[in-house]
Write a structure and sequence with these properties.
By secondary structure, this protein is mainly beta. The chain contains three helices and ten strands; from the N terminus they run H-E-E-H-E-H-E-E-E-E-E-E-E.
């Protein structure tokens, strides 16, 4: 484990996002392309994630989870991925973190 100070952690912006669309990226064995609604302030963003081993696109539609939204966009498959999904991994198993309350899209996570 690498320790960071609070000031570094405070720079990371976590937000609630609702996955509105999801599809397999045919050119990749790992990627799913999602359209995520982050509410009025941030709008919809394209997010690519290497979670295809654990999830089918149809399992993600309308799910709300946590994303890191202040990373620089990364070009993937001729588009920009504009956030990173937040999840947990334990060896061969992985889970995105689903909310237990229906918070507004774009809500800040702390």
């Amino acid at each position: 484990m690498k320790l960071i100070n609070y000031d570094d952690f405070a720079k990371v912006e976590f937000r609630v996002g609702e996955i509105k669309e999801a599809k397999v990226v045919e050119e990749s064995k790992k990627l799913i392309r999602m359209v995520v609604d982050f509410g009025k302030e941030l709008g919809e963003r394209i997010v690519f994630s290497g979670i295809r081993k654990w999830y089918q696109p149809e399992d993600l539609i309308n799910k709300k989870t946590v994303f890191v939204v202040n990373l620089p966009p990364k070009k993937i498959m001729e588009e920009e991925s504009q956030a990173m999904i937040f999840g947990a991994e334990n060896g061969d198993d992985m889970s995105i973190l689903l909310l237990d309350n229906d918070l507004k899209n774009g809500s800040k996570v702390f």
